[in-house]
Design brief:
The chain contains five helices and no strands. With about 210 residues, it is an all-alpha fold. The chain is elongated, with a radius of gyration of 41 Å.
Length: about 210
């Protein structure tokens, strides 16, 4: 349609130009109406396929193991490793308020404030792009959190000594806490064995 409009407009302009360029004296005859001419339909473009350009060589796709290794390394180097070390150190400190099994009565001070902050940070790095490491890491965070909450809930209010029920609750809490410690150690061992990732010094020896 645009091609047809262009052709008609050009013909009318030519006719008007002829009328203006004619003699100014009277008796000038009106210009003849332009004879419509058949407009040839545009020639369809060639259907021959264009010659392909230089084919770009696709970069080799890393294997699944390589992709996982790279992703886990990034997780560790960009905060995950620091979060894990902090969680280990605070979990070790929290156990200083644990009564010895051989003691019938013991005065203990429960302080999980540092552990609570470390758990919150660990949750920010809770997703590890390796299923096996992810499983132990998630278990460590959840068991440490659950165990600490149960131990704190066992503390007597307004009294110095725990009741037998509260003592049993504290024992269950510490047992859950121990499960978190084991999962945390398995996480560190997995990162070292499978990906060669470990802190400069062993955080377990600082406790």
């Amino acid at each position: 349609m645009p091609l047809l409009l262009t052709v008609v407009t050009a013909v009318l302009l030519t006719a008007c130009a002829g009328a203006e360029s004619g003699p100014a004296s009277g008796g000038a005859t009106a210009p003849a109406r332009p004879t419509p001419t058949a407009t040839s339909s545009p020639t369809p473009s060639s259907t021959h396929p264009s010659s392909p350009g230089a084919s770009s060589t696709a970069s080799p796709t890393p294997s699944t193991a390589a992709e996982i290794t790279e992703a886990v390394t990034q997780w560790y180097e960009y905060g995950g490793g620091t979060a894990m070390v902090s969680l280990i150190e605070e979990a070790e400190k929290a156990q200083s308020g644990r009564a010895g099994e051989e003691e019938e009565f013991a005065l203990v001070i429960l302080d999980f404030s540092g552990l609570e902050a470390a758990i919150s940070t660990a949750r920010l790095f809770g997703s590890i792009p390796d299923p096996k490491t992810q499983k132990t890491w998630s278990a460590a965070i959840e068991r440490l959190d659950e165990g600490a909450r149960e131990v704190l809930a066992s503390a007597p209010e307004g009294r110095t000594f725990q009741s037998p029920a509260e003592a049993g609750q504290a024992l269950r809490g510490w047992n859950t806490f121990d499960e978190g410690i084991k999962s945390l150690k398995r996480t560190g061992a997995r990162l070292d064995r499978a990906f060669g990732l470990k802190p400069p010094s062993d955080p377990w020896e600082k406790g």
